Each structure stands twice: as C-alpha cells, then as structure tokens.
Amino acid sequence: TSSVGAMARSMLLPVALVAAGLVLVLNTGLGAFLPSPSALAPPTAEARFLAAASPVALAMAASLPAFAEEIDSAEAYNRKVMTGVSVCLSLALVLMGIIIFYTRRVVENKWLN
C-alpha cells in the first residue's frame, strides 16, 4: 500500500499543474472561440495586399522544381550509394548498441564467472 500512496503523490503534482494551466487559459480569455464578424475591424490595404500576395508566393514556390537543374545519371547513382551506406551504418550502430547493452548486462550478473 505504500507504493500506491507514493504513486498517488507522484501523480498529484502533474494533475495540479494541468488544472492550474487550464484555469489560467480560461480566465485570460485565450479560448478557442473567435470574435463575431461585427467586432472585427475592416481590413486595411496592407492586410488585403498580404492576403493577395500569399497565393502568388505559393504558386511561385511550387513552380521552382520545374526550374531546377537536371540530375545526371552519375549524380543519381552517387545519391543512391550514399543513401545505402548511411542506412547500413545506422543499422550497424544500432546493432552495436544492442550488443554492448546486453554484454554489460551479462557482465553485471556475473554470468561469465
């Protein structure tokens, strides 16, 4: 029963922090609701310009790959080789980590003696 009491005490602080944060958000007016359209000010010329410029910028950014330089076959091959090497090295590092982890566990248990 002492572990249950300790677990209840350890959960008390996070629950209290979440409740305090929720109360703070609700009291400061940072809710999920937007003001009514009549409460909003009419958009300025700058806001209208930015609203019109955003789709144009997105269209230009989407067309950039069409202007990219063509990749030759040697470069594509080199990219494939480098990708394969990086995947193999990553897997080798993970395998080495697993081997070291279990070797340390076996030595700590004095299984080899």
In one word, what is the shape?
A: flat
Rg from alpha-carbon coordinates: 30 Å
Low-confidence blocks of residues: none
Helix/strand-derived category reads mainly alpha
Share of helix, binned: over 70%
Order of helices and strands: HHH
Strand content: under 5%
Give the biggest sheet: none
Q: What's the quaternary structure here?
A: single chain
Count the DSSP helices.
Answer: 3
Give the distance, in angstroms, between the N- and C-terminal Cα atoms.
39 Å
What's the rounded overall pLDDT mean? 78
What's the count of strands? Answer: 0
Care to describe what's here?
- The chain is mostly helical.
- It has helices spanning 2-28, 45-63, 73-108.
- The protein is flat.
- The protein starts with a helix and ends in a 5-residue tail after the last helix.
- The model has no long low-confidence stretch (mean pLDDT 78).
Compose a concise summary of this entry:
This protein is mainly α. The chain has helices at 2-28, 45-63, 73-108.
Summarize this structure as a short list of keywords or feature phrases.
mainly alpha; 113 residues
What is this structure's SSE topology?
Elements: H1 2-28, H2 45-63, H3 73-108
